Backbone:
């Protein structure tokens, strides 16, 4: 175990609580959030059009539909919308309440005991004018890194393909919006670190308490060969699953 020099001073960094703008004030249980998704769709629509034209260079600009309701049967086009993944195995609090009423089921386990993904899952694309189920080809390789199983609810994407007579949209490609420009990181004269931890699960008898002890020893610098490096750790963030 390393010897800690009492004269070593821990690194300090200025900290601004910008997260407080996300704090929930008065709880309004009747509020709906669908408009948030549609606002995001409208803000990203033009960016997605540009991204689609860059990804599919042979695409004509008039092939990108302003609204998915304008897509025609059998004609290749690009539609832009929000993905929704319909998962039959995923628990639904509304279905449980409709079934049990006030005698609700006990709290669900902290960790899922089974996967909710299944071959019966269906992806649906929606915008302000409606929804259309997506039909993916058997040869998933043509979609490269954006295969069906990697797509989740809430993503705003452009989808290339053609509407079928069955009311489905046969997918030939999926295009996300590119990453927006990021602010330049701060430059420090000396190294400084942030420790991010999760899964401590205090009070859970199935979790080995040694994990928390090792974390404490590490933060104190007693579990490292070079304790002076530990004192460059300026902040600790608990990222979830504390209890």
Residues:
């Amino acid at each position: 175990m390393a010897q800690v020099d009492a004269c070593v001073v821990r690194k300090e960094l200025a900290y601004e609580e910008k997260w407080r703008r996300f704090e929930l004030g008065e709880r309004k249980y009747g509020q709906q959030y669908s408009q948030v998704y549609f606002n995001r769709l409208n803000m990203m629509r033009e960016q997605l059009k540009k991204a689609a034209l860059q990804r599919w260079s042979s695409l004509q600009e008039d092939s990108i539909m302003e609204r998915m309701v304008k897509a025609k049967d059998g004609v290749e086009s690009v539609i832009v919308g929000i993905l929704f993944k319909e998962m039959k195995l995923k628990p639904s609090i509304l279905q449980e309440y409709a079934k049990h009423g006030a005698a609700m089921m006990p709290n669900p386990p902290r960790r899922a005991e089974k996967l909710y993904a299944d071959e019966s899952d269906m992806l649906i694309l929606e915008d302000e004018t409606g929804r259309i189920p997506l039909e993916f080809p058997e040869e998933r390789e043509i979609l490269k890194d954006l295969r069906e199983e990697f797509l989740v609810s809430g993503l705003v994407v452009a989808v290339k393909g053609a509407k079928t007579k069955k009311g489905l949209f046969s997918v030939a490609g999926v295009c996300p919006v590119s990453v927006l420009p990021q602010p330049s990181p701060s430059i420090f004269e000396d190294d400084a670190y942030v420790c991010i931890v999760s899964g401590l699960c205090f009070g859970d008898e199935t979790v080995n308490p040694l994990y928390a002890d090792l974390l404490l020893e590490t933060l104190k610098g007693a579990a490292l060969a070079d304790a002076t490096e530990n004192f460059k750790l300026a902040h600790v963030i608990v990222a979830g699953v504390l209890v």
